[in-house]
Every structure is written in structure tokens, then in C-alpha cells.
Amino acid sequence: MSAVLQGNPSSQWETAAHDVIVRAESIAKYFDVSPPWLNRVLERQSRAILHAVDGVSFEIKRGETLSLVGESGCGKSTVARLLVGLYVPTKGRVNFFGHDLREMSSQRGRHLRQKLQMIFQDPYASLNPRWRVADIIAEPLKAHGLMKDKAQIIARVDELLQQVRLAPADKEKYPHQFSGGQRQRLSIARALATKPEFLVCDEPTSALDVSVQAQVLNLMKELQREMGLTYLFISHNLAVVHHISDRVGVMYMGKIVELASRTTLFKTPRHPYTVMLLDAIPDLEMSGRARRPVAGEVPNPLNPPTGCTFHPRCPHANERCRAEVPVLKLYRHAGGETQAACHGVEEGRI
Amino acid sequence: MTAAAPSSIAPLLEVRNLRIEFPTRRGTLVAVDDISFSIAPGEVLGVVGESGAGKSLTGAAIFGLLEPPGRIAGGEVRLAGLRIDKLPYDEMRKIRGREIGAIFQDPLTSLNPLYTVGQQLVETITTHLSMSSAKARTRAIELLASTGIPAPDRRIDHYPHQFSGGMRQRVVIALALAAEPKLLIADEPTTALDVSIQAQIISLLKKLCREHGTAVMLVTHDMGVIAETADRVAVMYAGRIAEIGPVSDVIHRPQHPYTVGLMGSIPTFGHEKERLTQIDGSMPRLTAIPSGCAFHPRCVHAFDRCSRERPGLLPAGTSMAACWLHDVTGGRAAA
Predict the structure, then answer these.
(1) How far is B231 from chain A, CA to nearest CA, in Å?
(2) Does residue A11 sit within a domain?
(3) Does residue A242 belong to any structural domain of this protein?
(4) Which residues of A touch B166 (CB under 8 A)?
(5) Which ranges in chain B belong to alpha helices (H)?
(6) 8 Å CB contact of A293 and B200
(7) Candidate from A179, A291, A298 with C-beta closest to B199
(8) Residue B116 DSSP symbol
(9) Is B151 touching A (CB cutoff 8 A)?
């Protein structure tokens, strides 16, 4: 049983190695949140550097969905923005189809940019309220100079609207005439306009009600199947992540602490933080059960704990955890393969 | 134990045929339409629904804080037998905080940023209980300690901005329970918090309410929170109660087609699903509530009666559902 489980993913990894379309190579993003110069001089305050993302590496293969989960402030949205080039990494690099993402701003990078699109969290803020739907969806086509002919553009807009299960007649309307779920479909239609291969979705359903969320998640899965899309899915909702992902990365204080296939991660979580998160979710199945109390809060990211940043909340922490920063390593176990950054897992204590 | 509707015990809160309207230039909008429910002493009633279902308005109406132009246009609210929906402002102020406590979604807006949490707690305690301010301060420290705030004797002199989100919500809970109210209205108390903090706050709420015997009306859109906390649950749709019943029955054996769809649309870990159940369409706007059953345009089981006649709450299993599918009498003789 375990042999089969171990054999399968590794062979998949090898055959699909050339099919990696995005590779983050220990990317980091630091923000300078220091007080103004005068305060630093007069009040002897020091510089403050926020390590929003600190050395994150992963690969995303063609056609798969990688999700990043974590609580607010863990850096997951910053990773999303680094991956589409909205932020430039302080360290490391993002490799996209074998090219450094920094090339994308050049003329040569234009065709690369078309393959990469983003869907944002708030469908109320991400659509221009003064534009008609037709203009919103056609904007990427015009910006990239993909289509000049008006009739051609309209035909493409109609096609896109149908792809997201809206009616072509909707293109004459303004965003305020749509509900939250319909607006998110419009964002998806706009993102699909340039025929991208890779979509970064930053909390695409967290502003939506559950029944509407189900509609959007179903649509995203259908589109992925139809067009062979690759997703990076950012969410704080573990149940949604469980539903949509192939692989899941758990982030804590700017680092990935555990990365595994969905089944492995949810069935056999290894990192104590993942265990804690899974334990904390209110679940429909266990009505009335007593939750295991979860201790502590996320520490101040400006003054992170030494060693493993999770050690103040971890029931298994020891001296080594307080002193030494753990690195992400691959472990094979009965449940499959897991990458985890934990001294306890390494020493076999957990 | 409190799962079945306790008919023998006199209810603590009784809402009968409550109707909330918003008069506008283009006609009157009915945001909450003829809803009735009750909460027994010590019971936790969950109220779920999607945005715009009227769940928060119901809470605000009971608490007497309906924002104009919204107004109670019909029905009555009784607290321990006393009618409270028509009370003069000053009378209601005495009940608010003393008999009914409230917790809102955003802990930062529920606290005054210009006063320390101690000042706010002491004010609440001395307003409602006859206590000297020195005694009230001791009690405030006890309250903060009971909500799990570390070093309460120091923290009491801090301002709200010096607390984290989770700690702030603990302060709000302490504030709501300061005068030991019999009923607590918690409107999305954990929505603004991260999951790990959410878990802490829910277990704290459960623990404190059990200790004090406080009844809770828990308004949320999160079925998971309801599943863990509530004894009974009311599912609201378009300003009406679609289904009300014991929490495990509503979750595992939903009777109303809307509840069935709602439960299926929630992703869970339990079973692998390629597709989530999808309720097509969206909740009607208040300006265009369908005739008859408000859910009929989206309902897969709808038949002609559904668009003509509005169903009342009918017995369905151990729950009550507002759906003609459960009308066993049909056209025949009524039992």
C-alpha cells in the first residue's frame, strides 16, 4: 500500500519535470516599515524591516492547482503578487516558462505577460465601475494589441462571457448591475481574454456567500479542465483549498512550513502548525465536539521569534527549535511524500 | 438536551411575526417578513443565511438598534414575557447591556478608541449594577481574566488599539457579559478573525455562556461555527425563515430545498466531491421578492402552488420547514 503511494507521485514528478511552468527560487520580499528619518535620529528608533516573504521555493506543473494557505499576515498574498510581477523580489527569482520574470517588463516579455493573469479577491474593487462590461473584458485584448478589428473583439467578448456562463447581452451592462458572484465571473472572463496558461487567484471566493462560492469554484474547475489552465490559489479557507487543489503549501510568517499533495496533507499532516490549523476548523461533520484549545496568537512579524517562528505556540518545541531555523526537507512516510520545515519531524519526534 | 424545542419551559425570548421595513422613495422594502422563533433560557440559537437574508437586521431589531429608516412594521418581541419592541428609548437603554448583551463582528468599532478598556468596563458595570467604581474595577479585572486575557491587572489600563484582534474580541465579550445579561446577541463574532483565533473565541463564548446560563442568538454565515456551537438553528432566506430545527438534523437531514442546496455547497473534508452542489441563480433583491415561496424560482422541486401561495413553517422530520413539499394534508382534510 505504502509502496504504491510512494511510487506513484515520484514517477509523476520525473516525467513531468520539463512541464514545470512556474518555479519560485527562494524568493523573498522585505518591506521597509521604518519610522521616518527624523524620528529615527531624534528618538533613536531603529530601522524596521518586515520580512513578508522569506525564502519561499516551489514549482507548479502544467495543469495543476497549487494552493497556499495560512492566516492573515503569513505572506500568501505577497507571494501571489511576486508571481505576477506586481512586486519585485528582494531576493531570489521567479522563473516562468524558463524565463526570469524580470524580463517580462521588456518588449520581449510581452508574449510571456499574456500567459499570466490574476484574479483578485474583491470583485467590487477590481472592476472599473464606469466601464461597460464589454470594455472591461476587451481591455487586455487591446492592451496587448491582440485584436484590432472591432467585430473581432466583440465576438471574443461574447465567447468569453459564455465561457463564464454569462449571456453575451450582459456586455452592455455596468458592473453594479451584477451580483458579487457574477462580478467574479467577469473578473475571470477578463483574466481569460489573453488565453493565459497560468492564473494567480488571490482569495477569489472569500468575499462571496457559500452558495455563490460553490458556483465560482465549480466554474474554475470546469475552465481548468476545458483549457488546461494552471492555478496558484491563495486562500485562508482550508475546506475550499481541500476542494480545489492538487498540492497544498501551508505558510506561516513568510515561509512555507509544509508542502504536500492534497490527500497527503489533509490525511497525514506532519508540521504541528498544519495539525493545529486542521484542528481549529469548525467542521460540519463533528457537530458539538469539543475543540482542542489552540494556544497563542501569530507573533509580531517585525520581531519574529528566534529559530522556528512557530516555537512559542508549538507543543513539541525544544531547545533546538528555539535556536535553529528549520529548512524545508522532503520526507517519505506511509501517507506519501511531504516537504516540511520542522526539527521535530526531522528527528522523528513528531 | 436543549436540542428539541422545549415547549414546557417558558421561552426567554419570543419573536412573533416580526416584520422589518425600509420605506424608500420607490416603495417599501420588506427586509424581514413575518418571522417567528423563540429562544429558551440557556439555549444557543444559530441564525444562518447569506448576505441580505435579514439575519443581522433581526438581531438589531431585538436589541432595539435598528437603524432608521428601517423600522419594525409588525409583530412583537418579548423578553421573559415583557414586550420590548415598543419600549421608550430610556427604558430600552436599561435593558440593553443589562438584560441583553451584544457582540458585533468588528471588535475595533465596538470599543471606544479614546477610553481604556478598564474605563469602558467600569462604566458598563456601574451603569447596570449598583457597585462602587473600586468594586467595579475589581470585577472588570475578573471579567478580563475569565476571557483569558493574560495579565488582566495590567491590560485593564490599555487602550483598544494596544490589543490584537483576538484579544479585542475577548474584551468585547467581557463587556457584553459585564452585567450578566440573560440573552446575548452575537452578530458574526468570529468572522473578522483568523481560524486559529476563531476557534479560541468560540470555545470561550461557549464556556462563558454555559457558566452564566446565558442564552445566545448567534448570527453567522458560517455553518461550521453553528455546527459547533448552536443547539438549534434557523436558516433564513430573503427575509424569511426557511427552516428551523435541532442543529444536527438541519445539517445532516435538511428538509427545505434551500437548506439542502446550502449544505451541499459547503466544501468539507469528509467526502471527496468533484463538483459542489450548486444553487443556480442568486438571492432575489428586496425590490423583487418572488411571489409565493421566495425560493421557488431557484428551486428544483417547485410546482405551481409554490409561486402562488407562501408556505408557513410546516413540521418536517424533527425540524420545521417553510416548504409545500412538507404539506402532508395537501388539498385534503386538515388534521
Answers:
(1) 9
(2) yes
(3) yes
(4) 297
(5) 55-63, 89-95, 107-110, 117-128, 133-146, 152-155, 165-176, 195-212, 223-229, 247-252, 257-264, 304-308
(6) yes
(7) A291
(8) -
(9) no
Q: Is A212 on the interface with B (CB under 8 A)?
A: yes
Give, as one character, the DSSP assignment of residue B41.
T
Cβ of B318 under 8 Å from any chain A Cβ?
Answer: no
Assess A8–B contact: CB distance below 8 Å, yes or no: no
Element (H, E) at A169: none
Q: Tell whether B223 lies on the interface with A, counting CB pairs under 8 A.
A: yes
A192 within domain boundaries: no
State residue A170 phi and psi, 5-degree precision. Answer: -65, -15
Asked whether residue A146 is domain-assigned, the answer is: no
Q: Which residue has 432566506 as its cell numbers?
A: B237
Domain count, chain A: 1
| CATH number of the domain to which A337 belongs | 3.40.50.300
Residue A50: beta bridge partners? A31
Taking one residue from A and the other from B, the number of pairs with CB-CB distance under 8 angstroms is: 128
B160, B172 contact by CB (below 8 A): no
Query: Which of A218, A293, A298 has the CB atom closest to B203's CB atom?
Result: A293
Q: What is the mean pLDDT of chain A?
A: 87
Contact B271, A284 (CB under 8 A): no
Pick B225's closest partner by Cβ from A238, A282, A289: A282
> Which residue's entry shows cell 507521485?
A9
* Cα–Cα distance for residue pair B79/B92, rounded to 1 Å: 12
Give the mean model confidence (pLDDT) for residues A309-324: 92
Sign of the dihedral defined by the CA atoms of residues A117, A120, A126, A131, in that order: positive
Question: ipTM above 0.90?
Answer: no
- Distances in Å between the Cα of A137 and the Cα atoms of A187, A191, A230, A297, B38 are 8, 8, 20, 42, 49
Residue B80, chain A, CB below 8 Å: the answer is no
Q: What is the mean pLDDT of residues A64-93?
A: 91
pLDDT value of residue B10 = 83
Cβ contact B276–A276 (<8 Å): no
Contact assignment for A181 to B282 by CB distance below 8 Å: yes
- How many residues are there in chain A? 350
Residue B177: which of B133, B220, B147 has the closest Cα? B147
Q: Which residues of B touch A209 (CB under 8 A)?
A: 50-51, 221, 283
Q: Which residues pair with B32 in a beta bridge?
A: B20
Q: Which three cell numbers, joined as nine digits, stand for B162?
A: 494596544
Q: In terms of pLDDT, which residue wins out, B105 or B77? A: B77
* pLDDT for residue A12 is more than 80: no
Residue A45 is predicted with a pLDDT of 85
pTM: 0.84
Domain around A43:
1-104+198-206+228-281+305-350
A293–B199: do the CB atoms touch at under 8 Å? yes
